[in-house]
Amino acid sequence: MTRIGLYGVAGHMGRTLIGEINASESCTISGGCDRPGSPDLGRDIGMLGGLPALGIAVTDDAGAVCDVSDVIVDYSSAAATMALLPVAISHRTPVLVCTTGFDTDQKAALADAGRSIPILVGANMSASVIAMYELVKTAARLLGDDFDIEIFDFHPWDKIDAPSGTALELAEYAAEGRGAELSDLTVFARHGETGRRKRGSIGFSSARGGEVVCENTVFFAGAGQRLEIISRVTDYRAFAATTLRAAEWIAQQGPGYYSMDQMLRDQAAR
User: What is the pLDDT of residues 46-69, one digit of tens each?
Assistant: First the structure.
């Protein structure tokens, strides 16, 4: 049984994973950590997830959760992940990072942490989005610069970063399909008289509102035609199965900075 500690346990995905881990035959929940000052500190994790009491209290002590866990699953925030890294390194605990919104320095810190512990980073854990990455790369390669690319993401009102990590990762796959660097193609905002669009560029737009879980659309707009590749996640449980697979996998790896592609290729080869 892989012992999973949840970091950001009181969030949407943390609460969902409590039930999913509890129902699993190969994983067990070992602890849960939330931000200092959280109103859920001290609550029983089971009750937080809508289950009977499990006898495990929510804490703000990440080190204590690392002590009893084979892997930490992080659904928190970019700043909170940065606070977790040195703790996980000191306890030699692998981390599955499912948080988004990292800046360049924070991404470098994640990669550097991989020199000491296993780190797996995934912007989105739904099977439909993982498949969407490959579809977008293929479409970008086949359609070329004659088709303009726009990426739209719709998330709940309380998501704090935009574009979403998923939108940015979709753009990475689109740029790869075109054989280009994403940094040379991105357009993040348009307002007022912007002039004509630069051919080959990749544009972004985001909506935030209500209780939408996760919607992503990539538009390929050409002369007289448009291709849309869409993923709509309507239940947080859609992220759970891949999250647990990834958590079990990274718990068995040596130090390194891993991607979801590596995890999926390794599992497919077995």
Answer: 999 999 999 999 999 999 999 999
Which two structure tokens, joined as six digits, stand for 23?
């129902």
Distances (CA, A) of 124 to 21, 40, 53, 97, 231: 18, 26, 30, 10, 11
C-alpha to C-alpha distances, 166 to 23, 80, 247, nearest whole angstrom: 28, 19, 19
Find the largest Cα–Cα distance for the chain: 61
Per the listing, tokens 């040379």 go with 184
**DSSP alpha helix (H) spans, the chain:** 12-23, 45-48, 62-67, 78-91, 104-113, 127-143, 165-177, 240-250, 260-269
Which residues form the catalytic set? Answer: 155, 159
The Cα 153–Cα 155 span in angstroms is 7
Query: pLDDT digits over 10-45, tens only?
Result: 998 999 999 999 999 999 999 999 999 999 999 999
d(CA 52, CA 107): 38
Helices 165-177 and 127-143 sit at what angle, rounded to 10 degrees? 30
Bridge partners (DSSP) listed for residue 29: 4
Pick from 116, 85, 81, 117: which is nearest to 98 by CA? 81
Query: Contact, 98 vs 247, CB < 8 A?
Result: no
Please give the radius of gyration of the chain, using alpha carbons only, rounded to the nearest integer: 19
| Measured CA distances, 114 to 56, 66, 245 (Å) | 29, 16, 19
Task: Say which amino acid occupies 41.
Answer: L
Give residue 66's identity as a one-letter amino acid code: C
User: Among 150, 168, 136, 128, which Cα is nearest to 222's?
Assistant: 150
Q: How far apart are the C-alpha atoms of 7 and 54, rounded to whole Å? A: 17
pTM of the entire structure? 0.84
